[in-house]
Fold:
Amino acid sequence: MNVELADVELSPKLLRGRLTNVTEAGATIELTGRMGVLHLPLRCILTTGKPAAGDKVEIYLSYARQISSQGGTEAAYDEDV
Structure:
């Protein structure tokens, strides 16, 4: 099945999970519904207090779009963004 990129609407979806590990540098989020695990820098978690393991979180995610391949052409992309 070959899907054209122009045919795919990338709209973020709200996913929920919980923090399973929090360090000085980052946190691990276990997403509900067998959606996987994310590792994020602590600065990416918006909070008024100090995050701790067991805290519930929510995050907006969308599909990942490939912008280059080993042998193919690259889409326009600014690495300085």
In short: The mean pLDDT is 84.
